[in-house]
Amino acid sequence: MPEYSLSLQLTSLVLLLVFSGAFSMTETVMMAANRYKLRSRAAAGHTGARLALDLLGKTDRLLGVILLFNNLVNIAAATLSSVITIHLFGEERWALGAGTVLLTFFILVFSEITPKVIGAHHADRLAPIVSYPLSFLLKVSYFAVWFVNLFVSGLLHVLRLKPVQEEGHASLSIEELRSMVLESGQYIPAKHRSILVNLFDLENITVEDVMTARGAIESIDLSAPEDEIRQHLATSYHTRLPVFEDDSERVIGILHLRRLLGHVLDSEFGREAIRELVSKPYFVPADTSIYTQLQFFQENHQRMALVVDEYGELLGLITLEDIIEELIGKFTTSVPDSGDRVSWGEDGSVLVDGSQNLRELNRKLGLKLPLDGPKTLNGLILEHLQDIPEGGLSIKIADTPIEVVQTQDRMVRTVRLFRPAAPGAEAPATPGEA
Ligand SMILES: Nc1ncnc2c1ncn2[C@@H]1O[C@H](COP(=O)(O)OP(=O)(O)OP(=O)(O)O)[C@@H](O)[C@H]1O
Ligand SMILES: [Mg+2]
Transmembrane stretches, by residue range (predicted)? Predict the structure, then answer.
């Protein structure tokens, strides 16, 4: 046999291995490509990405065409390698065996593993590129692929298996979305990431969780002397104040300080003016999710709502700002003494107001006070004791030593919290404990 025919055969074998590698890589690229990235690029007008999405929409055809050609070149390579072996060494058994082992090695290294590793690493970049030749191959081999898939779907049917459905890939649960956001790495800045994650949580947080508790509400009591009311209005920190009548149980309306201004200027100001100025209070049930509340505020053109329990009893108030803070963190415009700077003192204790919100306390002090019951520290202590405590009493809730410092009007006003002992560490001396 002439020399050039051997070199032609060897060159063809190398070419077949290269093609085989290309198909292996393509298979991994298409399977590993991120559909969401492709979708966003396709939406931005990228033709390759759109082709890739089209191909991924028909997984059976896609795999069919890739595997058809991959197997075609692999088998051709095997046949050619036998021809070359016989050419070089005659029909010796050992030579045919050695040729098979050698070819297997080459296919694994150059046509399977290496191309697949490369494909997996650059899947997102390569998918739109390989989609051009793939779409072409799919067109020219349409009938062959269809014919092969006829048998595939027949077999799947016999085995009672369902072919892959595109829909299953397309929809994401909130949990999957959350982990995608958390793992987005450098693609999404950390601040945006935390906003997105918080957004998923809005459904699970109720207005009661984030409201300003009743004990901390700044309000106007119309039964107070007018001087006192005037003084109160002049020093009010807040813009919208609930107005109470007599028994301080019934809110007659919300006073917006800006609306008061006109009256103050024409000095026609007194109880009656306030009564005329208040707007109708807007009530919401305590178990409304803050996501729903956000929509309510929007629909009702409101910024503040009074939170009530199932008996209509006032529990607290919530404003738009309270909800937005859950998304993007605290604003610096909140009341200076609202406990924003709560932190452990040097002696490992801290004085806090009984009206403090448990969620916030847990967050600021790293505590684990239970959140499934009452929302405020006062509520928690009263529930724990089933009684109105005396000042000086000490209890322990969720490993946190708590000392009631001052009670007033059947409420726990001031409380001293002690830092819980770290697990395993020696318990620090706490009041009421030997
Ligand atoms: N009358 C009030 N008494 C107690 N807390 C209030 C009162 N009004 C608002 N808050 C609380 O103050 C925080 C800031 O809310 P927001 O900014 O809506 O009120 P504001 O500062 O009084 O009004 P604005 O910012 O429109 O002037 C929120 O945590 C809210 O619950
Ligand atoms: Mg404000």
Answer: 12-33, 62-88, 94-115, 136-159
Decide: helix, strand or coil at residue 292.
helix
Atom of ligand 1 at shortest range from CA of 219 = 1
CATH code at 205-328? 3.10.580.10
- Residue 387: what pLDDT? 82
Ion ligand 2 residue ranges (Cβ < 5 Å): 333
Average pLDDT, the chain: 86
> What are 166-198's pLDDT values in tens digits?
445 556 777 788 888 887 777 778 888 888 888
Q: At what angle do helices 3-32 and 47-56 cross, to 10 degrees?
A: 80
Q: With beta carbons less than 8 A apart as the criterion, state whether 40 and 50 touch.
A: no
Q: Whose CA is nearest to atom 23 of ligand 1?
A: 239
**135 close to ligand 1 (CB < 6 Angstrom):** no
d(Cα 18, Cα 429) in Å, to the nearest integer?
75
Euclidean distance between CA atoms 43 and 70, whole angstroms? 31
**Where exactly are the structural domains of the chain?**
3-170, 174-203, 205-328, 349-418
pLDDT at 434: 36
For 253-287, the pLDDT digits (tens) are: 999 998 888 777 766 678 888 888 899 999 999 99
Q: Is 232 in the pocket of ligand 1 (CB under 6 A)?
A: no
Span from the CA of 312 to the centroid of ligand 2 (angstroms): 26
Q: Is the ipTM of this complex over 0.90?
A: yes
Domain 349-418 belongs to what topology?
Answer: 3.30.465
